[in-house]
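User: Predict the complex with zinc ion.
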Amino acid sequence: MTHPTPIFDGHNDVLLRLMHKGDHASGAKAFLEGTDKGHLDLPRARAGGFTGGLFAVFCPPIERAASVEELMRGETYDIPLPTGLALTDAQQAAIAMIAGLFRIERSSKGAVRICRNAADIDCAAVSGALAAVLHIEGAEPIDADFRMLDILYQAGLRSIGPVWSRSNIFGHGVPFRFPSSPDTGPGLTDAGKALVKACNELKVLIDLSHLNEKGFWDVAKLSDAPLVASHSNAHAVSPHSRNLTDDQLRAIRDSGGLVGINYATSFLREDGRMNADTPLETLVRHSDHLIGILGPDGVGLGSDFDGAVIPTALGDVSGLPKLVEAFRAAGYDEETIRKICRDNWVSVLRRTWGG
Ligand code: ZN
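Assistant: Here is the predicted structure with zinc ion placed in the model:
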């Protein structure tokens, strides 16, 4: 059997699925031995060529309207932002998921490696280990004095999305709204601007996905690192509030940054609907547009595995070779495919982190 094309991915929520609730031992077992639930675990990752990526710590809203998924199947929708999280609630949730990732690594006997620098990713590639980069989606666990930032950095945190789709002390996320511009509210707070500076000093990646447009431009103005949106798509193809306008894409290009293509059907489809019956050609339309602006060095993948309704045509992480085939069918050459699937992510992490 030929080896599948190696993938390095910008976003998954497997820690939320397996480690947020329930005990770590069974979560680690489910990840390492595999199940048929959700999208991502180690055996299915190996089958699909998924060699690593950013593993998100996402502190879920305490209360969320049960009808959100139903609403996003509609023709238009405007989901109100959920209320903010208390610091202690967010920290508890984050500790559960981060400790869960430590447990996975420890139980894996070398098969999973938490990567804190580019050399770790290189070593994981050589040994065949799954490379996990610790990422926070929404900085609610971090206090305004950044004490928790120091602790999380020492624990291995190397990527921060200042906001998820809600407001916090750092800024305001974009609501799930279709059709809509991403310009939905005010930009970063003073604490948010200080967080950008702190991330630059620590050489921690700042993730632009989920920020509204003003917050995006605040980061673009302040940050000295390549601009990265780990899991967002092209607004020109699907006019969703979560997607990036051509002006935003050009700013990312000019910084030497990257956009990871999100497989969430509501951000892929031209009609904005959450509907798993979505052909992979729809995803290729986004990659065509993104490559048209960012070039073949500025586009990667950002699956949203275990965090979104993705095309049935892909199914789960083991279906990634079908996506590679869709790129081939669209006429992408092998070098471009290698870059989109893995090398661009590793390059932008190396340039952000140094070394
Ligand atoms: Zn997300």
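The domain at 7-353 is CATH 3.20.20.140 (TIM Barrel).
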